[in-house]
Amino acid sequence: MTQRQFDAVTVETVQGDIANQPDLDAIVNAANAELRIGGGVAGAIHRAAGPGLEQECIPLGPIRPGDAVISAGHNLPNAHVIHCLGPVYGRDEPSDQLLASCYRQALMLADRNGIVGLGFPAISTGIFGYPLAAAAQVALQTVRDTAPTLETVQRVRFVLFSDADLAVFDRALEEL
Ligand code: ADP
After folding, report:
1. Which atom of ligand 1 sits closest to the CA of residue 123?
2. Does the pLDDT value for residue 27 go beyond 90?
3. Ligand 1 binding pocket includes 71 (Cβ within 6 Å)
């Protein structure tokens, strides 16, 4: 685990499952446009949350790349889930700006809802094909740039699925 402080926000990286972060107020879903169950992160979150999550989410969609919406956590240990639609790499352009928009909108939505601890997966780096090191840079830079505007958010945790992915985020965080 690596930690860095940006203004009042502690940013940390861990290896783990985004759907099993019980000490955080909210987790972020790498959602699909329709906010349906899907695979990867979305599958893990919806399985853990139960069918009530999809029922709440479908009327909130469809969303566009770069957008974020908030729902309750249902059977998750977290009070809220923030659903972001990342860019499909090579299709949704400019992909770096759309990816940054996901992180910025999620952080601002968390702040408006009084969230203190928020967990992110590496949005767009699975099925959507965004190269991990480049995605890590965008993610961490956006948290650093947004941190001064945040009032309630104090902890941002990046939850990486593998040790190899964690090492990439750790390096990006150290070099920022
Ligand atoms: P996207 O469609 O935005 O690319 P994916 O869900 O396919 O989203 O994957 C995003 C990233 O999350 C990938 O790096 C993938 O390895 C990782 N991942 C998949 N499942 C989990 C999980 N349960 N917890 C944390 N990270 C996960």
Report:
1. 3
2. yes
3. no
CATH code, 35? 3.40.220.10
What pLDDT sits at residue 1?
83
Pairing of strands 117-120, 155-160: parallel
Looking at the 3D structure of the chain, how many domains does it have? Answer: 1
According to the model, what pLDDT value does residue 112 have?
98
What's the whole-number average pLDDT of the chain? Answer: 98
Domain that holds residue 122: 2-175
Is 17 touching ligand 1 by the criterion CB < 6 Å? yes
Provide mean pLDDT across the span 121-143.
Answer: 98
Stretch 136-147: mean pLDDT: 98
Pocket test for ligand 1, best of 29, 161, 168 (most atoms within 8 A of CB): 161
